[in-house]
């Protein structure tokens, strides 16, 4: 977990916006990692407080084995993740799209962490629910090998709809910006450097 503010100095809590970045890839070195660091640097330069959760470094079972019976104790890393989400005003999710959806590690993180009583709560036996994470916003930084137009118009952008509507929106988190960096596989070094500069600008506008 890292936490820094303007010019890399440790800030006084409350100086800037409280931002939690969640890196949703198991890879330790990737374009997602670089985009996240660029965004964080842009935010820190504006005096915001940035903390990071790198899911690939956490220790937890990503399989929700008993559904929502809640008989599966949360590991210490997941309990800490819940505390960090409660702390944050703004969330940043950085992840690749694999097979048209979220990486299994990120999906497993949502399954285990966004539980009833934490992310949402049904009102008795009705179909209505309370959104327990309301008041927070999110930015999504997403890499794809598929051209964005093809992903949207041919595939229907399933990963984007899942994140913005059925996970974050269901829990009360409003997606402010969804940023696609694609297609990655044929991209040049010049293109990737341009993406990193764009990610830093996004962070500066956090």
Automatic annotation (TrEMBL):
Gene3D superfamilies per UniProt: 3.40.50.360
Domain Flavodoxin-like fold: 17-196
Family to which this protein belongs: Belongs to the NAD(P)H dehydrogenase (quinone) family.
Protein name: NAD(P)H-dependent oxidoreductase
PANTHER family the UniProt entry points to: NAD P H OXIDOREDUCTASE-RELATED, NAD(P)H DEHYDROGENASE [QUINONE] 1 ISOFORM 1
Superkingdom per UniProt: Bacteria
InterPro entries registered for this protein in UniProt: Flavodoxin_fold, Flavoprotein-like_sf, NAD(P)H_dehydrogenase_qn
Short name of any one Pfam family annotated for the protein: Flavodoxin_2
Organism of provenance: Pseudomonas aestuarii
Keywords attached to this entry: Oxidoreductase
């Amino acid at each position: 977990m890292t936490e820094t503010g303007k010019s890399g100095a440790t800030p006084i809590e409350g100086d800037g916006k409280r931002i939690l970045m969640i890196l949703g890839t198991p890879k330790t070195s990737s374009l997602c990692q670089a985009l996240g660091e660029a965004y964080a640097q842009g935010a820190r330069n504006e005096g915001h407080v940035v903390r990071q959760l790198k899911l690939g470094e956490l220790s937890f079972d990503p399989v929700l084995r008993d559904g929502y019976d809640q008989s599966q104790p949360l590991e210490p890393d997941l309990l800490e993740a819940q505390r960090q989400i409660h702390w944050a005003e703004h969330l940043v999710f950085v992840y690749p799209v694999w097979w048209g959806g979220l990486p299994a590690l990120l999906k497993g993180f949502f399954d285990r962490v966004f539980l009833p009583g934490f992310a949402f709560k049904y009102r008795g036996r009705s179909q209505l629910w309370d959104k327990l994470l309301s008041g927070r916003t999110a930015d999504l930084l997403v890499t794809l090998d598929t051209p964005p137009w093809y992903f949207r118009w041919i595939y229907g952008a399933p990963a984007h709809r899942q994140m913005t509507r059925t996970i974050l929106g269901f829990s009360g988190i409003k997606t402010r910006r969804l940023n696609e960096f694609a297609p990655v596989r044929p991209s040049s070094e010049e293109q990737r450097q341009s993406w990193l500069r764009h990610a830093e600008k996004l962070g500066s506008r956090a």
